[in-house]
Design goal:
The chain is of the alpha+beta class and 410 residues long. It is built from 16 helices and 8 strands.
Length: 410
């Protein structure tokens, strides 16, 4: 035997899909040398059910619930991107009260997502109490889902144009409950931070773990809190505004070191930002007319309008009623010449994008649907983040990426 010959013993370990920290059905092949990780090979597809192909067989309205089931923690955020894409295709205007209500529900969704993300991450690391506290607040938030749509998880609430503007009417009861919840939630977030932010074990498990650089985060197509933890001010709500985000007062939360601890702090700050956006939107809704105005689909089939005492009223004859029914049941008229588009929104996990090609068929209007899910791109960077780290840090990195496999596998 030669002198100074060092023999390294490699061990291949299966992590998941049964592991509780696998966040769904993630399977990792880990190449270990002792406790150090030298290779991470993610295996996905165990939840795949062909969502994109299923969407292509449906009408426009029938496709909406499929988006709820992608990232099932942020249901309304997914279907909102699809609804915006359809409104762009058909050039449908949206009332200000509808847009404000959408902002409120989108920020409620962001709160739901981040509360689950942070506290299940803490549970993976070893802290149980934040998980129990946050789920009490999540139950309150899901009651707002239920008040609007009747469902607590898969709402299927957003509609193309103003076709469900009656559902967007803000009642005094809901307004007061949202206002009270937001005022109380600031204190709940302070309590959560008291448990975690300066906790020695929490900080030591997250700081300088899973560090990513600006160059590599862009190279891997990271987005959302993962990208902003590097200090990149990329938030589609501000850079490519939709709904009424450009009229509200808020700022992008940024990190500096790009590690797991920064991503935790960003999500905590984003929850406070979401509460501010909800309160701002609630105040603006007080000055908005919440009357029901049906969507104007085309000038040829517009509802006949008349003014009386300064107010505009809508009436329609049988022909207009038939055409309105056809459009609202999913058979929209083609109002634009283009057949394809790419549109993205800022969901709680990052940039959620849709590439949609339209056909001329009423029964199958969507010729092709390709979904860009942020979790899929975050997962491909797991090998880069975990290499040369400890085995225990793999769990920390998975938790801080906030992966949900409904959108990864599709």
């Amino acid at each position: 035997m030669q002198d100074n010959l060092i023999v390294y013993n490699y061990l291949i370990v299966n992590f998941g899909p049964q592991h509780p920290a696998a966040h769904g059905v993630l399977r990792l092949l880990l190449e270990l040398r002792g406790e150090f990780v030298y290779m991470v090979d993610p295996h996905i597809g165990l939840l795949h059910r062909g969502t994109e192909k299923l969407i292509e067989t449906k009408t426009i309205k029938q496709a909406i619930p499929y988006f709820d089931r992608l990232d099932y923690v942020s249901a309304l955020a997914q279907e909102h991107c699809y609804v915006l894409a359809m409104e762009s295709f058909f050039n449908l205007p949206v009332q200000s009260n509808v847009s404000l209500f959408r902002v409120i529900l989108l920020e409620v969704t962001r709160l739901l997502n981040h509360l689950l993300s942070i506290t299940t991450h803490a549970l993976d690391v070893g802290a149980l109490t934040p998980f129990l506290w946050a789920f009490e607040e999540r139950e309150k938030l899901m009651s707002f889902y239920e008040a609007c749509s009747g469902a607590r998880l898969h709402a299927a609430f957003f509609a193309v144009g103003n076709s469900s503007s009656s559902a967007y009417s803000m009642t005094d009861k809901l307004w007061n409950e949202l206002k009270f919840f937001c005022s109380e939630m600031f204190y709940r977030l302070d309590e959560l931070e008291d448990l975690l932010t300066d906790n020695f074990i929490w900080v030591s498990r997250l700081r300088n773990v899973g560090v990513i650089s600006i160059v590599d985060s862009i190279r891997y197509s990271f987005s959302g809190p993962v990208l902003r933890s590097c200090g990149v001010p990329w938030d589609i709500r501000m850079l490519r505004p939709y709904e009424l985000y450009n009229e509200l007062d808020w700022a992008i939360s940024l990190g500096s070191s790009g590690d797991c601890y920064d991503r935790y702090l960003i999500r905590m700050n984003e929850m406070r930002t979401s509460l501010g956006l909800i309160l701002n939107s609630l105040d603006l809704m007080k000055g908005v007319d919440n009357s029901v105005i049906l969507s104007t689909i085309d000038s040829k089939y517009s509802l006949k309008s008349s003014k009386f005492s300064g107010k505009e009223y809508f009436t329609f004859d049988m022909e207009l009623l038939i055409n309105h029914f056809k459009n609202m049941s999913g058979h929209f008229l083609r109002l634009v010449e283009r057949n394809s588009l790419y549109l993205s929104t800022e969901t709680p996990k990052g940039e959620f994008g849709l590439t949609i090609d339209m056909s001329d068929s009423f029964s199958k209007p969507i010729n092709r649907c390709k979904i860009k899910a942020p979790g899929f791109f975050h997962l491909q960077g797991l090998d880069y983040m975990c290499t040369s780290s400890y085995l225990a840090d793999v769990v920390t990195n998975i938790g801080t990426l906030d992966i949900v496999f409904g959108e990864v596998d599709r």
